[in-house]
Amino acid sequence: MLGITLFILSAGFVIYVLFGYPALLALAARRAKRPVLKQPAEKTVSVLLPVRNGERWMRAKLESIYGLDYPRDLMEVIVVCDGCRDRTAQVAAEFTAPNLHVLSIPPSGKAEALNVAIERSRGEILLFTDVRQILAPDSLRELVACFSDPEVGVASGELVIRDGATHAEASVGLYWRYEKWIRRNLSRVDSVLGATGAIYAMRRSLARKLPRGTILDDVNLPLGAFFQGYRVVLDGAARAYDEPASLRTEFRRKLRTQAGMYQSIGAFPELLGRRNRMWLHFVSHKLGRLLLPWALAALAASSFALPGVWRLAALAGQALFYCTALLDAAVPEGWRAKRITSPVRTFVVLMIAAAGAVTILLVPARALWGETRVRVEAQPER
After folding, report:
1. DSSP state of 282
2. Residue of 33, 195, 258, 347 with fewest CB within 10 Å of its CB?
3. Are 101 and 77 in contact (CB under 8 A)?
4. How far does the chain reach from its first CA to its final CA, in angstroms?
5. What pLDDT is stored for residue 223 in this prediction?
6. Which is it for strands 134-135 and 75-82: parallel, antiparallel or unpaired?
7. What is the pLDDT of residue 333?
């Protein structure tokens, strides 16, 4: 009886997280009436760019920043080279542009690099970005316009992943589009509980020093503003562009982000309490994602307790699902079956990453400040 109860609870949890909550969120977003009161504005902005070994991306990134449709005299750019072993600092220093500050620090991790940049900044608005992604020319102007709304403390842009050349890259892109759909609807309801690390802005007055070893600055800083009573919104008009990543890269990224979510819960225990006005959404989405792989494991284990034909059906269905994921590597790229096997494999790999996030907390956070591989070639992430 206990096994059957566990099966029902596990199945119900999986169905709710994957299907029930998104339906609930869509309904809540349709009824929400909290638009962002955007108005064109020109405020002083500090662009913060922490980087480790980003030589090959640095010039293009600075050209992207200084190509923004925003008054140059209202912008400053602060590049912090965190223990760079290549020519990142030299490339940045050779870039001729006004109000460009290039700082070098010993290898300390992204959080410390950002603390140095925030301390040095003077703008009313802080724009956080990474070295690899290219910013759309109007992105900064769109984000700054969000701060005309006095309720907005953080405005996140949208990361656009270019189309992948393989089904695996396309499946990762599909997952990312689903994630952006969730974020857009959360923003309509009230707030997203985190920002897009490649492009987000916040009021400097709300920025707090990041604890050393913070994995997700794009969650820690927005949550600090959120619990001061401000909204964290997503503005799809502000965009950054990135190349598609491999499934292996997405696995590492998922490990890092899910480990960072555990860390964020420890730093903001009020996420689980009454002070969190987005409690239902946090528990259903963020916490639900952390628990999902364990619910799937419980579902598999408890299937053996089901009677007769039910046990056979449950085990056969799950075996078919996981075998589909395993077979994906053997299915040729041009086959139609790839349209099914590749998304299933992506889902399973991301679930393994979510489960592994517990163990990665044993790794020093600065060890996660490394490289991301995109389709073109191996490139540093920040």
Report:
1. I
2. 33
3. yes
4. 52
5. 97
6. unpaired
7. 81
